[in-house]
Design a protein that fits this description.
With 240 residues, this protein is of the alpha+beta class. It is globular and about 55 Å long. The longest helix is centred in the middle third of the chain and has 26 residues, at 77-102. The strands form 2 sheets. Strands 1-4-8-7-2 form a 5-stranded mixed sheet. Strands 3-6-5 form a 3-stranded antiparallel sheet. The chain contains 7 helices and 8 strands, in the order αααααβαββαβββββ. The chain has a domain at 135-239: Toxin ADP-ribosyltransferase, Chain A, domain 1 (Alpha-Beta Complex), CATH 3.90.176. The structure holds nicotinamide-adenine-dinucleotide (NAD). Nicotinamide-adenine-dinucleotide (NAD) binds at residues 91, 95-96, 99, 137-141, 145, 157-158, 161-164, 169-170, 173, 177, 180, 209, 211.
């Protein structure tokens, strides 16, 4: 993305998708790598578009979340609003329903949850790929669940999943869920199908969750397991 100027910030609401290079008729599809066929086999490079991978980012003062997404992704104001709303709904209190829906369970307001789920996945695919270093996810697992995570075993996260680039955030979540059985912290050095959302979060800035959202299509292999001094289980993953 080009550097933000004052002009950008002022004019952001008038910005039009058609003006983005991807919106020009002659450029249609030029940012999508099509040569290698099946998306599954294309790896991280093809997952994302032309945007430069990045870590967490901040929205320039005077610019709105919607305006930022509109410019960064080259989408219409209305589409940017749908993305921002979907991420808001997920992070606020819909994450359980969205993940349950993605696991094939029936949920209340199925149609609405289905749209939010689609919008989140679409946003992750279009947004800059995460390249801000190691990410952590804190969960609570029962003994039976934990036993599935043997070295060499392969897992998804049962839907779109929240990670943080700050280990203390994941530790807090793991501790919170300790009543499930074990406080577990997943470590992943990459999130090739994930994107930073701190700038869209209700808890932005350095005191926030530094959240990274990983697609439901993310898959990981267990490399190593360790127990720390507080009896928390650290599961080191490698993305597949
Ligand atoms: N968990 C984190 O480390 C983390 C990091 C940043 C932000 N957040 C925010 O916290 C809120 C809650 O997110 P969350 O991740 O705790 O909710 P979640 O619904 O993904 O996880 C809740 C519980 O579901 C179970 N679960 C989740 N993934 C599992 C798996 N792969 N296998 C077996 N059981 C699994 C665990 O018991 C887990 O504690 C969201 O608003 C999110 O944005 C969480």
């Amino acid at each position: 993305m080009a550097e933000w100027t004052e002009q950008d910030v002022k004019q952001i609401r008038e910005w039009d998708e058609k003006e983005h290079p991807r919106g020009q008729p002659n450029n249609a599809g030029q940012f999508v790598e099509k040569s290698s066929g099946n998306r599954k086999n294309q790896g991280a490079k093809a997952w994302n578009n032309d945007l430069t991978p990045r870590g967490q980012t901040d929205i320039p003062i005077g610019c709105t979340k919607i305006g930022y997404v509109q410019k960064e992704l080259g989408v219409s104001y209305e589409r940017a609003q749908e993305y921002v709303d979907a991420i808001d709904a997920y992070a606020d209190n819909r994450y359980s329903a969205i993940r349950a829906f993605q696991q094939g369970q029936s949920v209340e307001n199925q149609e609405e949850i289905s749209k939010i789920s689609r919008d989140i996945e679409d946003y992750i695919k279009k947004a800059p790929r995460w390249n801000g270093g190691e990410t952590f996810r804190g969960v609570g697992l029962s003994d039976k669940e934990l036993q599935r995570f043997t070295v060499g075993s392969e897992h998804d996260m049962k839907g779109v999943s929240s990670w943080s680039n700050e280990i203390t955030i994941a530790e807090d979540f793991a501790n919170e869920y300790k009543s499930y059985g074990y406080a577990v912290i997943f470590h992943s050095p990459t999130q090739n199908r994930g994107t930073a959302i701190r700038h869209l979060s209700k808890y932005p800035g350095s005191s926030g969750e530094n959240e990274v959202l990983a697609s439901k299509e993310s898959k990981y292999k267990v490399l190593k397991r360790e127990t720390d001094a507080y009896n928390r289980i650290h599961i080191y993953l490698e993305e597949m």
